[in-house]
Amino acid sequence: xxxxxxxxxxxxxxxxxxxxxxxxxxxxxxxxxxxxxxxxxxxxxxxxxxxxxxxxxxxxxxxxxxxxxxxxxxxxxxxx
Length: 80
What we know:
The chain is an all-alpha fold. 56% of the residues lie in helices and 0% in strands. The chain has a domain at 29-80. The longest helix has 27 residues, at 30-56. 0% of the residues are buried.
């Protein structure tokens, strides 16, 4: 394997899923656990990218951090 090799998401998911198959935790769905982690990770990356793009645009300084966060569609907000 070369130093430039990067595993695919499927390979990492499968490795995570299969490496956690022990008799004392049989039946636990590690594939779904990995998928939840990946979705949370992707949302965090998207939120950071959106904020970086916003700050790089014409709106620099025009909005407070709270206002930017409210406009960011990738930040999770609880609905009241």
